[in-house]
Structure formats: structure tokens, C-alpha cells
Specification:
By secondary structure, the chain is of the alpha/beta class. It is built from 10 helices and 8 strands. The chain has helices at 40-48, 73-86, 99-112, 143-166, 181-193, 196-208, 212-217, 239-245, 261-264, 266-278; strands spanning 4-6, 12-18, 25-29, 52-56, 92-97, 118-124, 222-227, 249-254. It has an 8-stranded mixed beta sheet, with helices on both faces. A hairpin with a 5-residue loop joins strand 1 and strand 2. It is globular and about 45 Å long. The protein starts with a strand and ends with a helix.
Amino acid sequence: MTDTVTTKDGVSIYFKDWGPKDAQPIVFHHGWPLSADDWDTQMLFFLSKGYRVVAHDRRGHGRSTQVSEGHDMDHYAADASAVAEYLDLRNSVHIGHSTGGGEVARYVARFGEPQGRVAKAVLVSAVPPLMVKTEGNPGGTPIGVFDGLRAALAANRAQFFLDLASGPFYGFNRQGAKVSQAVIDNWWRQGMMGSAKAHYEGIKAFSETDQTEDLKAISVPTLVLQGDDDQIVPYADASLLQAKLLKNSTLKVYAGFPHGMLTTHADVINPDLLAFVQS
């Protein structure tokens, strides 16, 4: 079996599929602008517990095709569905981080639940229901912030990614933070593997996609996790609203944890993920 699937619009999506094929699948959806490699710690952890673990690179990211079109939440969800259908994944738990959380919400609402493939979902530091500030979302982040991200990316993507990983993404800009240069380097490596166009257009996808209806449509048990020191996705406008909109949610907010807490605090998060999967 190949490690890529070709979507209906001809995009090659790279994926990893490890572990026993008859075990329950745990499917991981990465954040912007990263790749499936961002889940290494979680994939090895769940593999050691006997699960089948699957993760793909979003279109334009990692090892998937650097296609010109389709850098929006609808295509992200359809691409995730292409992987699930190709591997015929059933009774799956879909776990999404940041932009990947938006991908999970749209995938589960539009594909996973209607097809009967999903048992549970997990949103970690996730972008829904809507990041940008609007009349209907007064607690959101002003559009100027996202315009600034686009400008920085277009001017010097390599420096922009280095600054993001070295500072707010992992909370490495906080006093007393235990900074890991290897974590910063790995974030930068994953980001630079992807397409500048996909990353540029992905900012609109993660910030301006209203996913209120996606969240309302999900009925499977959903775990919502976020740190209250998330400097990328403010938790009051994200996880707290997610928990209210979802029909069947469990919310856990971690004091002082950053946006990239899956990496910096895997020792805490992984057992919590496992407990939910097994519950």
C-alpha cells in the first residue's frame, strides 16, 4: 500500500499509518504550518498502548503536493476524509491541534459522523468557532493581527517561522520557560517543508472560517483541551465557546500551558488523551 492518497481534485496527500490494522484508529490532524511529524510523541505513545495511529500532511504542507488551490477548511476536511475512506477507518478517534482542530470539526460534522466512521473527537488549542473579531464575535482577534502575520510571512517566511517557534507558540517568551532549541528547530523544519502559498492562504482559512454550525452538528463525545496561557488562540474565544456549542463535550483548561502544550507538556496531555479514548 502506498503512503499517499490522491484526492478527487488530483492532490497527493501523504500519510503515516502505524500499528495493528485491526486496532482502534487514532487519527491526528496537525496545526498550521506544520506536518504529521508534529504528532510524533503522541503517535509513539498511542502505538505503545496498542492503537493504530494515522496522521497526514495537509495539502501544501509537509510531503503533500504543493498545489495552488484549495487552501480552505472545506478542502482540508475533504482531504482528511479521503485518507479515512482510503484506509477505511472506522470507530476512529480524531484529534486535532489548532488549525487541525478546525479540520476535525468540519471533517466530523460533514464526513465522519454522516459516514459512521467516528467514535470520538478531541480539539486541542483549536481555532473554532471563529478566530477573527466580527460584530457577532466581539471577543475575537482583530483582522490586523492576521494581516500582520501575512505580511511577515511574505517578507521573510524563514525568520517569521523562527520567531513564532522561539516565542509565543510554545510560551518560550515567558519568564522561567524551559526553552528547547531542538523543538524550535523541528517546528521550523516542518514549516519550511511546506508551500509559502499554502501557508499564506491558510491564515485566512484558520482565522476567518466560521465553524459554529460544525460544532453544533457534532454529537459524538468530544474532549476540549486548551492552556489558559495560549498566546496564539485565546482560550476564552475558543475552547470555552467550543464546549458550549458542542452537544457532548468535556472541557479541560490547563493553568499556564501554552499553545504548543502537546509538545511542551506531553507528559500531562498524553495520559489525559488516553483516559478519554478509553472512557
